[in-house]
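Hi F.,

I've been meaning to write this up properly since the lab meeting, where we talked about keeping a consistent format for the predictions we share between groups. The idea is simple: the sequence comes first, exactly as it goes in, then the structure tokens exactly as they come out, then a line or two of notes. No screenshots and no reformatting. I'm using this chain as the first example so we have something concrete to point to.
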Amino acid sequence: MNRRDALGAIGLLLGTAVMPSVARAMGAGYRAPPPGTPLRVLSPQQGELLATLTEIIIPATDTPGARAARVDAFIDGLLADVFTTDERERFLEGLADVDARAMAAHGVAFVQITPERQVTLMSALQAEGKLAPPRPRRRRQRTEPSAFFPWLKDLTLVGYYTSEIGASQELRYVHVAGRYDGDVPYRRVGRAYS
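Output, unedited:
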């Protein structure tokens, strides 16, 4: 399976209509900038908020999480290189809304509340995302999610599973030179193939 096919499969696995910006990133094979590259769109506070949100979606377990895979830098790069101005503004408004909700409920920014409260707030955002009707797009009259959380989740999954960490440590890569074995028991593999 080549990279383009793998990215297409990720889109199918998401089970939702993929945002146009996510589809453009997948089609272009976009990757996070190299380590040490400064954020280009997000402020340091927004970057930390985004890193915290993505780590809640894909936390570190026996494999590294979204923060280690630099999903926040991947999304920042998308904001700079792939998103339209409208998409960038909507995404930044979504980040601001998460902080505003934390401030209203707990009196501090999202990154300062306890992990349990962070998960509770994210669960509420996820529930809202399931109930929000899709909004029509201007071109081609397709629809896109109107809620922030489904979009963030799509971006996190794509950013993580197209990173070296997600593709080689979370998924298992088995290089079979010259041989194909299509009947491998799952318990022997233990993880999905990349």
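Notes:
The chain has one domain: 3-189.
The radius of gyration is 18 Å.

If this format works for you, I'll send the rest the same way.

G.
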